[in-house]
Amino acid sequence: MNTIEFLQISSAVVPDREALVEFGGNNKRITYGEMYPAVVKLANALQGLGIERGQNVAAMSVNSADYVLTYYACAMLGVSFVPLNYRAKDEELTHMLNVSQCQAVFVSDRYLDLVERIRPTLTHTQHFVAYGGGQGGFLDYNELVARSPEEEIWAEVDDKDATIIIFTSDLNGTVKNSREMVNSVVAAAERAGVPYRLNAATLGVANDSGSFSRTGLKAATLFPFKIPQHMVAFYHQKWDGPEVLTMEPLLNVLKLTFEWVRCGGEGN
After folding, report:
1. Rg for the chain (alpha carbons), in Å?
2. 65: closest CA among 154, 148, 141?
3. Which of 57, 88, 106, 182 has a Cα-to-Cα distance from 267 of 20 to 30 A?
4. C-beta separation of 74 from 83 below 8 A
5. What are the sequence ranges of the domains in the chain?
6. Distance between CA 97 and CA 104 in Å, rounded?
7. CA-to-CA separations, 253 to 186, 219, 227, in angstroms, rounded
8. Which DSSP symbol is given to 103?
9. Under CATH, which number does the domain 4-146 receive?
């Protein structure tokens, strides 16, 4: 099921009900009946830029009505939406955009200078759209939408297609799920004789702990220690209760941690 269907249904059943109320910014109030046609026009604008199913589009913005419209326009096309953390460092943003191969990025006013600064380092991003109005090398969001047709678009999506790609950061503020990080933890686990099961994870999309999911081991927590977060999640999830915190996995995670630290996080 495409998530755009939720909006389609609401616009047909309760068109006069408010869907979005924006505090600050332009203080927009949008009903479902207004929201759906706006999403259709934005989806046509994206399609006009050559963006199609299977590609990715990023957004770097504070919360706004247009931000939500961008997500649904991507969903209508079968395009994955990539929200960017505006607190990330330049090199981290470059990594996120390049790894996800985003074809376009939507930017609110306060982040225009930041995105302009990293533009030369981007390998796949071709279109830069400013929510607050075009300037420099940025397309004007409102003009882009205004001149687009209102023809509904329907993209066939598979249940395995990602509607959104979210990057996370570890306690040290670095982008997670790097091949080097996963390999170094695996090597430490093997040297320490700690059991693990390595599952496939898409680099730059899931976090490092995703590669160690479903180990079948009871949980242990190391949150009091300042160690990389992917090690914590190796045996523990934040929703685990005290009943699953046992000595064996705690000792395993300690052995893994000490071995990883002893070798300085190296993979060999």
Report:
1. 22
2. 141
3. 88
4. no
5. 4-146, 179-262
6. 9
7. 12, 9, 11
8. E
9. 3.40.50.980
Measure the CA–CA gap between 209 and 125, rounded to whole angstroms.
28
Residue 166 confidence (pLDDT) above 90: no
Sequence-ordered list of residues with C-beta below 8 angstroms from that of 151, at least 6 positions apart, any chain: 40, 44
User: Model confidence over 36-85: pLDDT tens digits?
Assistant: 999 999 999 999 999 999 999 999 998 889 999 999 999 999 999 999 98
- Copy the structure tokens of residue 130: 């400013």
CA angle (87, 93, 97) in 5-degree steps = 140
Rounded CA-CA distance 251/253 in Å is 5
The answer to whether the beta carbons of residues 18 and 121 sit under 8 Å apart is no
Nearest in space to 98 (alpha carbons), one of 84, 114, 108, 86: 84
pLDDT in tens, 233-253: 555 555 556 655 566 767 777
| Phi and psi torsions of 248, nearest 5° | -60, -55
Q: Which amino acid is present at 97?
A: L
Taking residue 89's Cβ as centre, other Cβ atoms within 10 Å add up to: 15
| 17 neighbors 88 (Cβ within 8 angstroms) | no
Instruction: Check: CB of residue 256 under 8 Å from CB of residue 208.
Output: no
Using an 8 Å Cβ cutoff, are 162 and 137 in contact?
no
Residue 12's contacts (CB-CB under 8 Å, 6 or more residues apart) are none
Name beta bridge partners: 175: 169
Whole-model pTM: value is 0.66
Q: Position 188: which residue type?
A: A
